[in-house]
Design brief:
The protein is α/β, with parallel strands linked by helices.
Length: about 260
């Protein structure tokens, strides 16, 4: 069985596990950054403007409360508009990417199960609107997309369920109560589970820019949908980048927007 097929199957298993979000595993398949041991530090490339800097800083601090990983904010290696990945780290970007349905994208490129590079894209075409131009929406989406790039999935994807008090929860009301602006203990526990083993190699800090094609602003560049929300909108896309190599993209749609139908 190829790594690509195993990855797709792992996504399906994770989706089934989400039926009981308060206690279920919410890892993103088996995807993780390779490293010899813990704790390890991931660089967050700052390609965001002053409207987003404070939210990036808070998310970095919140995720660094994990016992297995830390994050550090470093100068960006790309531009907000292009958001080109850099191997070995996460590039965080914002721009007006267009009113194409999505608030945020989290993309990971993987060789087998090992994440090699990742990006976060925040779509100002929506955050310039009154509905989403709030501290709560900005903080929740920033926190959630960075969490995906560690290998975390959602704890729940039903926006009408009560908030779980974690940014890894879909919601129509990030401020709650409880608020969905930060990770919760279940997120930290899941990171411990994901990173409970050591690897013989590392994919952190390699610093090679543009190892695979950029993730664009529309689904045509994200590959094929491999997982769907209950309302039929695609949630995860997979693009094949070569033997054993894939790029996966988590998308958070604006309310009522996004394609439907499998």
């Amino acid at each position: 069985m190829t790594s690509i097929i195993k990855g797709a199957l792992a996504l399906g298993v994770a989706a089934a596990a989400l039926a009981t979000p308060a206690s279920a595993s919410h890892s993103w398949g088996n995807y993780h950054w390779a490293r010899p041991g813990n704790p390890f530090t991931l660089k967050l490339g700052d390609n965001v403007d002053s409207n987003w800097d404070s939210y990036l800083a808070v998310a970095s601090t919140d995720w660094s409360a994990s016992t297995v990983l830390d994050t550090t904010i470093v100068p960006g290696g790309t531009t907000g508009r292009r958001c080109r990945a850099t191997a070995g780290r996460i590039e965080v970007c914002n721009a007006a990417y267009g009113q194409n349905g999505w608030l945020g994208l989290a993309s990971i490129s993987a060789n087998g199960d090992h994440i090699t590079q990742a990006t976060v894209k925040l779509n100002d075409s929506y955050y310039n609107m009154a509905q989403y131009n709030t501290p709560e929406w900005r903080q929740m989406v920033m926190c959630q997309e960075i969490g995906h790039d560690f290998g975390l999935d959602h704890q729940d994807t039903n926006q009408t369920n009560p908030n779980l008090g974690t940014c890894m929860d879909y919601t129509s009301n990030p401020s709650g109560p409880p608020s969905n602006l930060k990770p919760n203990q279940h997120d930290y526990d899941q990171l411990v589970s994901i990173y409970s083993h050591g690897d013989s190699s590392t994919t952190i800090g390699m610093g090679i820019n543009g190892a695979v094609a950029d993730i664009g602003d529309t689904p045509s560049t994200w590959g094929r949908p491999v997982r769907f929300l209950r309302d039929g909108r695609p949630e995860v896309y997979m693009r094949l980048d070569g033997p054993g190599r894939v790029t996966l993209t988590h998308v958070i749609w604006a309310q009522g927007e996004g394609p439907r139908g499998r």
